[in-house]
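Example record

The entry below shows one chain as it appears in the dataset: sequence first, then structure tokens.
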Amino acid sequence: MAPFLNFQNIRVYWLAFVTYWGILLFGYDTGVGGGVVGNVFFQKYFGMWGADQKTKNQKKIDDLTSNVVSVLQAGAFFGALTCAPISGKYGRKPTLIAFILVFAVGAILTTVATSSTHGLKLIYAGRVISGFGIGGISAVAPAFVSECSPKEVRGRITGIFQIMVATGVMLSYFVNLGVGLHVTGTKLWVIPFGVQLIPGGIMALGLLTIKESPRYLVSVGKNELALKNMAYLRRRAVDDPVVVEEIAEIEAAVIEEREARANLGLKEAFFGKGNFIRFFIAFFIFFLQQFAGQNSVNYYAPQIFASIGYNGTKNGLLASGVYGIMKVVATTFFIFFGVESLGRRYCLFISAMGMGTFFYIIGAILKTHPPPAANASTVIDESVIPPASKAMAGMLYIYVIFYSMGWGPLPWVYCADIFPTRTRHYGLTTASASQWLWNFTITKITPTIKTALGWKMFIMFATINVGAMGTMSLLLPETKGRSLEDMDVIFGSITAEERQAHIEAQTRVADQEAHNVAGGAHDSEGSDKNDSVEKAEKA
């Protein structure tokens, strides 16, 4: 009995593991672009240097860098918007299968881009198409996982999203480092772009092994199949009181939503009672997350580390790799040991204060102790890196720990928490689209900000961390330990008394459904036994 209890939610963890391979792609693709375009051979191959191949055109390089990195986000923005009606009509699992196939098409295009005349066009097209796929996945996957997770561990399981993002970014850093040190020619980008097909294939095959969301099935009237799927996910019998009560709670919420929002349109979805504030939170929380400064470091890590004194390909990429490792370790520790203990609000507040503090320190050190020559093309030995630069790198590593314990994973967890089944696909689409919109914005402007502001860039991000993000953290309602169906009560769509009355009514209905399902199984078993007896008598 003990092993059964210890692994009660193992099928939910497996579902998260499978669907979040697409989120690893999210992290990998966002991190790999900056390393690829920063390679001198890549720049020369596509005409970013002068005819003599000795003088680089900095404006062309800056444009190329921002374009290759940012077109992924542009495609993802539209993918996130497109997935909502598909997910609502056809279900979470078929939608994920469709978007991972779209991603594969884009990944193949970038992998075969070896022509000096047409290769760059293929890379742009491939990045847009694969971004479209990733955008859809990033909107559907957290909703799918959240809908299937029990409330006791929902924050932890949903938070694996950010672990996979961090892991993907870290892998991109080390793939770029290995390729940059040991590979030459067009393989410098063919290999990094080709590697993304591996997790894509794993996800596509894994999706064939999981079941559809019970909450989605209830929302489309397939209650009996929803009951069976919920029993499968919880590893319990279909007439188990835990399963029956959970399905009853879902059915009650769905009935309430249908009664209150019959013929739901976009206007009602966004402005219905208790809805607008949730959509505002989903939009604004990701605006702040993108301007926390972390993604500026994420996408342009080699360039950022060069700006604080880590010059040369090896130094910059290695420092970036260590940054990636710190992010993965910190995120994993927080998701498994912190997210369900401290609560969402306090974790976000502590995270914002910590990030702001260390960015202020970095800005101050960079102002008073600037590195001698931050030129990414200059290869120098690590021993000549100034102590102040090492101190700033250490501050960046501590900064990302604070990011990983709050504003990294929790916006996704929080947005997955707050939307009811009826508007969940709209809510998660809004969150994902906001994330990609501001992601695209920060990606495009970071090179300009870094050049124009210098040390002031860190002060700007620190002020946003402390002022805006710290304030919003304290204004958010706490959702730790609350079921998805409780969110309507928290945000004022229905009173607690009305909800309890609906649950009691649906429990009686669900008890009868479970009895019928279990009775059908017993009748079938009895019929089989009778058939066997008759055959034995005839023999």
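Notes for this example: Residues 1-6, 374-380 have pLDDT under 50 and may be disordered. Residues 209 and 284 are 36 Å apart (CA to CA).
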